Amino acid sequence: MDLNTLISSAIVMMLVGLGFIYMIIRNKKPNTRTPTELIGVGLSALLIVFSGMLLVMGFTIGDTVHGPFSDQKSSVGRDAPAFSFTLLGSEESKSLDDYKGEVVLLNFWATWCPPCLDEMPDLNRLYADYREQGLRVITISDESREELVAFNEFIPLDTESGYIDDGMALPLPYVKMMEGRPESYVIDRDGTIREFILGARNYEFFKASIAPYL
In the beta sheet, which residues pair with residue 136? Predict the structure, then answer.
C-alpha cells in the first residue's frame, strides 16, 4: 500500500466510524439505547482511534520520504551520512567517516546484478590508478561474506570491498539502493556528496566524475 492509499483509507475509516456513531445516537436519549447499539458505538469509536493512528503513521512516513533526502539526487551538496560496514578482506569494521580527507567513490552493488558486474573491473582499475592521489573506491553489498568471498574467485574485488548485514538499515539516501543497483556517490575530501550516479558506468565516466575533487 502506498502512502496516498494509506492516508485515504484512514480518512474513509474515520468518516465511516463517525457516520455509524451519528446514526446510532441521533434522536435517541442515552437511557433508551440497546446493548447492541452501545456495542456499535464502542466499535465505531475504536475504528476512529485506529484510523487516527494510521493518519499519524502516514504523515510521519511522509515527513521521512519527503525530507532532505527525498531522493538520491537531492543529497548532492549535503554531508554524506555515515554508516558502518565490514571490510571483506580483513573483516575490520569501518565507518564512512573514517575516509574524510580522501575522495570517495561509494558504490552499492550485488553479485546478482549484471550491470554491477560489468562495471566492477573498471572500478578496480580506477582504484589502482588513483589510489595514490587520495581516491578510495568503496564497494558495498548487502550479501553475506561467504557469497562475496566465493564471487571474488570469479571477478576480483580489488576495491575497498565491504558488506553490511541489512541494506534496509542504511540511512537515507543510501537505503534507496534497495530499489535498484548499481548506485554510486562521489564524496569529496570534506565529506560532501558531489555527484549521484545511477546505473553502470565505464572507466572514463568515473574518471571524469572524481577528477575535480582529487
Answer: 104
